Amino acid sequence: MLRISLRDGEALVVNGAMLRAKGRTELVIENKVALLRGREIMAPEEATTTARRLYYATMMAYLGDEPEAHKNQVIDELTLLIPAMGSDEGRAACVRFARQVAEGSFYRGLTTCRALIEFEDAATAPANEAA
Question: For a 10 Å CB count at each end of the chain, is N or C smaller?
Answer without folding.
Answer: C
